[in-house]
Design a protein that fits this description.
The protein has one domain. It is built from 8 helices and 2 strands; from the N terminus they run ββαααααααα. The protein has a two-stranded antiparallel ribbon with strand order 1-2. The longest helix is centred in the N-terminal third of the chain and has 25 residues. It is globular and about 60 Å long. The two termini are 28 Å apart.
Length: 255
């Protein structure tokens, strides 16, 4: 699977009653680290596609575990930032705007991969999962953290003990419980991938109202490290075409 990105909401911390908004540098840096993991995985996958490394390298063993950790980290950070962005009250317009952007980006990914990889196009990848989780997450914004935590555990239990195969409909593939799923470059069904999103929401509910923003945030190198995380959707949409172009070009030169 190819994995991505925290675009569930912005990383602004809005204090109740505050008119100003400031980015949480630690959250942007966490996104940057997750993005680095994604780029490393996708670069390795591209090397595999063009025959530079053995076929199946990224599908098993440590690489498969790494891919799941990267995907889980983005969903976890999405849930975390989702709560922090609405801590001062549900910002309906900002939520709706962000949801439209994510859905639009997910649609572009589907169209682009359908054109290039028609037999393995992305019909429910990580952007689709984040969009769906952002809809579900609204119902967990103002409930106790334990409710989100135990719901996440229940999702994992369903995946572990019930497993796929309950549903036969192609239209319910996104639940993760259908046997109708077709091969895809990136398939992130809500069972079990809703779980890390809910775990992120639970943790965010337990954080102090004023998350730490100490003086180290003024250091230039930390601001540079945070830049990719501040533009995570753009990095996600652009990195793979650039990597594919680089690997393809190298393959042509070595022929």
């Amino acid at each position: 699977m190819s994995h991505t990105i925290d675009t569930g909401s912005d990383s602004r911390n809005v204090a109740p009653g505050s008119a100003s908004q400031s980015r949480l540098l630690w959250l942007d840096i966490a996104r940057s680290v997750a993005l680095l993991g994604m780029i490393v995985f996708h670069f390795t996958r591209d090397l595999e596609v063009f025959g530079f490394i053995a076929s199946g390298t990224t599908l098993t063993g440590g690489w498969a575990t790494f891919a799941r950790l990267v995907a889980g980290s983005f969903l976890f950070l999405s849930g975390l930032s989702f709560v922090l962005a609405h801590r001062g009250g549900f910002r309906t317009r900002a939520w709706a705007r962000r949801l439209v952007i994510i859905c639009g980006a997910a649609g572009l990914v589907t169209i682009a991969t359908l054109a290039v990889f028609p037999t393995r196009f992305i019909y429910f990848g990580i952007l689709h999962a984040i969009a769906a989780a952002s809809l579900i997450g609204v119902f967990f914004l103002h409930v106790p953290a334990m409710a989100a935590l135990f719901t996440g555990l229940a999702v994992l239990a369903i995946d572990r003990f019930v497993g796929p195969g309950i549903l036969q409909s192609q239209w319910l593939v996104w639940t993760g419980l259908s046997v109708a799923a077709q091969p895809s470059l990136d398939f992130i069904p809500l069972v079990p991938w809703l779980a890390p999103f809910l775990f992120g929401m639970a943790l965010a509910r337990l954080l102090p109202s004023e998350s730490s923003r100490s003086s180290w945030s003024t250091k230039p190198w930390l601001r540079m490290a945070a830049w990719p995380g501040q533009h995570s959707l753009m990095v996600y949409l652009l990195h793979q075409p650039l990597l594919l172009g680089l690997v393809w070009g190298s393959a042509q030169l070595l022929r």
